DNA sequence: ATGGTGGCAACGCCA
């Protein structure tokens, strides 16, 4: 089962680039972030015509997550638990059943800039809530995949110019520590199991020729429960997507699971 | 170098 995460930066703006990538990469499951659309305006037909089931959790203008799956999705849940006052659409869960059942979590973690400030406080509180949900998911002892735009650069080797990010919410020590606290519950960050570990990125800013200079960062991650990590066959980043017409500033990151 | 680029949606906010 090929499972991908892709921050598309607007579903309407990616009306050509996203289907083109789906047709060539043929993922079984895609976790989308920043659909920037309400559910009613999401172009379901384009994906249903390609054989995908579609579940969305959108909002007007900003954020928004979705799941596309060639296998039916069950027990869909929208919103990260513990956020009664949180109206931002950043979390969706569903179960997909292939050879075995896999619990999928699609997430768009808050950016948090500028730091310090209320946006950074929101990022850290959201990560604390995510840690609670991640811990609860482990109790089921089933394959779990938590994938999305984490807005966290885990290590210096995950940035072309780490010195440029030292005061940024994506790379501050507190952000990285909160990421490790989730990881150390017992999750495996799939791409980090690959060698070499440096020089691989999933985001290049639109500004200042970041793509042309390969000035990227790796912030899109797939975290696997032990039962999912046991099934991991392959992990990759579809870097070339960034060089095409009308690209998102992120590219797809994917895994193959024996599931 | 306090700009630069892009999306959404409406002349500003977010990344």
TrEMBL record:
One of its GO terms (biological process) is DNA repair. Signal peptide: none annotated. The lineage of its organism: Bacteria, Pseudomonadati, Pseudomonadota, Alphaproteobacteria, Rhodobacterales. The record marks 220 as: Important for catalytic activity. Probably binds two magnesium or manganese ions per subunit. This is Exodeoxyribonuclease III. The record marks 250 as: Interaction with DNA substrate. GO terms for molecular function: DNA binding; double-stranded DNA 3'-5' DNA exonuclease activity; endonuclease activity; metal ion binding. Keywords: Hydrolase, Magnesium, Manganese, Metal-binding. Mg(2+) binds at residues 7, 34, 149, 151, 249-250. PROSITE patterns: AP_NUCLEASE_F1_1, AP_NUCLEASE_F1_3, AP_NUCLEASE_F1_4. Pfam families: Exo_endo_phos. Its cofactor is Mg(2+); Mn(2+). It comes from the Bacteria.
